[in-house]
Amino acid sequence: MADRKITTENAPSGVTAAAGFMAGAAMAAIKKADKRDVTVIYSTVPASAAGVFTLNKVKAAPVLLSIGRLASGKAQAVVVNSGNANACNGEQGMKDALAMAAEAAAVLNIPEEMVLVASTGVIGKKMPMDKVLPGVREAAGVVSPGGGSLAAQAIMTTDTYPKETQVRLQLGGKTVTIGGMAKGSGMIHPNMATLLGFITTDAAISDACLKQALRYAVERSFNMITVDGDTSTNDMVVIMANGMAGNEMIKDDSEDFRSFREALAQVCDKLAIDIARDGEGATKLIEVEVRNAGTERDARLAAKAVAGSSLVKAAIFGNDANWGRVICAAGYSGADFDPAKVDIFLGNVQVAKDGGSLEFSEELALKALKGSTVKIMLDFKSGPFSATAWGCDLSYDYIKINADYRT
């Protein structure tokens, strides 16, 4: 897709939109000499924290370190690098992740155990710590409320544009802000996709409620996107809540909790859709909606399978209204439905009825397929549940990008 303009605005945005959050970024030349590739996100006060991590059995050292530290439900900073995943590096990988956290902690004057670590980039390559640690020192030393946009740039790998957003809502008469940034373009598949996501909020919310809200939001956003069917070793989404908005502490399943949860889901939706739209080599975003399924699980399984089908993705790239590939993907998804009831639409054009062929306008279908967003809808006519998944088309450029990614 066409590159988007990268902003260098100093206005608080993304991970620094919420009160009390700062970020800094540096050029450490980990992989490229002219790119910001280290960032530090910092809360001026200790925060409640939660995370969701890759389900890949092979987990990078930063993932293992952050999982362990989040057992306390607290954090105050995250240090992130792009250009090297620090994955499959054995004991040295963990030493390097610990060193990154220690360096950030020393500059920020906070306890080491309050610093989380994330990395993204090439797997199985030693971390160039002679470059990384000076980068961490520099990034931690320049944290500011205006550093959000630069931080979003620093975590990019094959992304063509930075991904950040923020929302505001009223909780108990107080204005609460939730902001976030994410990276992801390739090695993307549900079960946390191949992505890094960092979310900050000034809401006062208990550790348990924060964790519950994050899982709810991730299941309906990041876990419903797919680019290429690969689940990474480094995936994580982390949230910190520092309470500086001054709202009454959210401790249970209250109206305020539900409002916060939906606002968090809105942030995650925006970031997840941006990742799917920016899939490596992508020319189109694919949105797959399953309606009237018997269970939410059935709807989710079918939507993800269609969005992830290589044949569907190739057909969308080629502007081919091949609805047979759509119902085929739903059929192997594991979802329970009656194939003889399924209607399929491409945009507003119905292309199949009751699981069978239907005379439709190829011209109108082609028009629906040529848009920058292609919508596919399957109606199971079996119940009240629905789900939406997002992906992208599969183009020639995906092969070009990944054929020489390491070199």
TrEMBL record:
GO terms for cellular component: cytoplasm. Its EC number is 2.3.1.35, 2.3.1.1. Substrate binds at residues 157, 183, 194, 280, 402, 407. Belongs to the ArgJ family. The gene is argJ. CDD domains: OAT. The keyword Chaperone does not apply. GO terms for biological process: L-arginine biosynthetic process; ornithine biosynthetic process. HAMAP family: ArgJ. The lineage of its organism: Bacteria, Bacillati, Bacillota, Clostridia, Eubacteriales. Pfam families: ArgJ. The active site is at 194 (nucleophile). This is Arginine biosynthesis bifunctional protein ArgJ.
